[in-house]
## 1
Amino acid sequence: MHKTVTDEVLTAEDRQLHYERWQWGGRLPSERLRGVRGSNVLGLLTFDSDLVHALDVAGPEVQRAVASLAARRACEAAGLTDVAWVNQALTALTQGHPLPPHFDDPDQMWETLRSTPLVPGPTVLGAMPPERPPYLPPPPAGWTWVPAAEPRDDGATRYELDRLPGSRAPMVSASLLVYPAGTPDVSGPISQPYFALPSVLAAADPDPLKAALDAVWHALHTHGEHYPALLKEIWAVCSGRAHK
């Protein structure tokens, strides 16, 4: 990326905050969200940044409800709710109890899953996040970034400064080359049971916010290409129970 005039005006902190605001969907994260970066929150942001912020302010009761629902919907999608030891774990989540055996030892959990007869479900491809505009650094006052030409063969697009209508800002010249984000790995069909069980483990996390974020993340990938239906249901829980 070429050096722009804004590099000389904005402080490093300004540039970082500008990027974070774009990364977090147009607003800065709360300190609580910053504190769960060890989770899959940054990945979930690429699918629905508004949901991430909604879960943050929803409160522990709603967060627990979301985590439990996400785990159950993941197991339903994977055909695991009729498996006794999985159903026991889902019941424990609903009742606020510790997860039962098999889930207290990940190695044993996976070994038990491998030895459990399962009915193959329908073919499901991996989840693809929606496209989003590329990140562009803040332009000088009175100017905006515009594409200078069609994307190149390698997908990169050159942007140049264009004076805003009515602006009398001093003449500046800058350009930058923006490359598209890497293509997500959406190889399929996916093995839904192996995505679903981590959602159960995540839902039991002691931190309600982290439990909700990670359970939704794993459930989303369990649903694969059909994830919008799951997020719609998660949104209904947030909207219907927040602030109650």
Note: The first helix runs from residue 12 to 23.
## 2
Amino acid sequence: MLPKLSLILGGAASGKSVFAEGLVMASPLPRIYVATAQAFDDEMRQKVQKHLAQRGPNWRTIEAPLDTADILPDLPKDAIVLLDCATMWLSNQMLAEKDLAVEQANLLDALQACRAHVVVVSNEVGLDVVPENALARRFRDAQGALNQAIARQADLAVLVVAGLPMVLKGELP
């Protein structure tokens, strides 16, 4: 059985979502997908459709691009949740000009209060060059802080590189 809170990190197209889905699908518990992406263009709509097809029909999907913290505490205890992804959630908060410290604290509290098992997918953005503009640097720093905070709370943290998992904290089931 998966621990209460797992964090799956990786770069773009690293295989992190596929790996996280595999962890969730190995569980006998009912599956809930918490989607944080907003499909504003055709490319993103295609990506969402690809993820839906990958998961198959045995998932309940909740779209929560901004209000993720509000829905987590009310999810059932006998479920496993895939929150995909913290990076899109953070982007949404920034675009909505929310107070990132407050929203991060709310999300961390909600993850703690959630009775279900939760697998959070997030991008590791600290392995690249320093971004050239202030907004991109602010995002990188905020994402790094969010990842570190979730990792501190998590029982399991895995970095996925080229589709291969490297356990950073805890043990895979």
Note: The chain has a mean pLDDT of 94.
## 3
Amino acid sequence: MNSKITLIGGIVVAVLAVLASSSVYTINPTEQVMVLQFGQHKRTVQEPGLHFKLPFLEDVVRYEKRVLNLDPPVKRMILSDKKPLNVDSFARYRIADPLTFFKTVRTEAGARDRLQAMVISELLKVMGTVDLNVVLSDDREIFMAKVLAQVNAQASRFGIDVLDIRIRRADLPSETSQAVFARMKTEREREAAENRAQGFELAERIRATADREVTVLAAEANKESEILRGQGDAALTKILNDAYGQDPEFFKFYRSMQAYEGALATNGTYMVISPDSDFFDYFSSVDAPDKSAK
């Protein structure tokens, strides 16, 4: 009899324990819970702690409250300038409306598949409207904000709030990189040739200007020297005229002496001139020495 009572008591305790465990559940600070009754939504609980539910009649579905990561695979995209680009992107999102999330995608795996397709689709559309320079510049923030707004508008239908979408890395395919590098080299060589040609042109312009200035300065200097030489000659002529006016006979004698000195200065000079010539005027006026006196 006692053994039966003990058995019954043990069964009752076990049933009560099962009932208690089925009617109590806990929520972590990183979770949010939906309570379902026969598959129908009853309530959403987001406060952490100990909570109660109807045993066997109500079930709980747990979802993350934290920000979740989405890492789509690297996708080859074509830019507006027809260049292919391997784009590695990522997104950050959270479950904002658990009921809508449960009705549309039910699981986080299903949400990742939907969200990944949306992110890649919007990136393909937006990247097709920009060129490589925009992707590599600060303007990338502008079109990434457009991608985020478009994806968020679609994701809200699934109870998802997308917080951020960014491009982690964007690489040119190897075959495109070689072509781009070759074109960059050609462009730099062309710019160098243009700069060199401009330098030569500027050098020629400077050289021509310098030559013209030298010519002008030389002409002005020659002009000044001719003016000074003319002024000197005029002064010399005036002085000589003044001197000649003071004693014409002496001036004539002095000029004759200069002429004798110039004509007879070289050794071995022979001159055939008539003795009656004016050149020997002062020679004939001097008495010859008397040979008989010796």
Note: The radius of gyration is 58 Å.
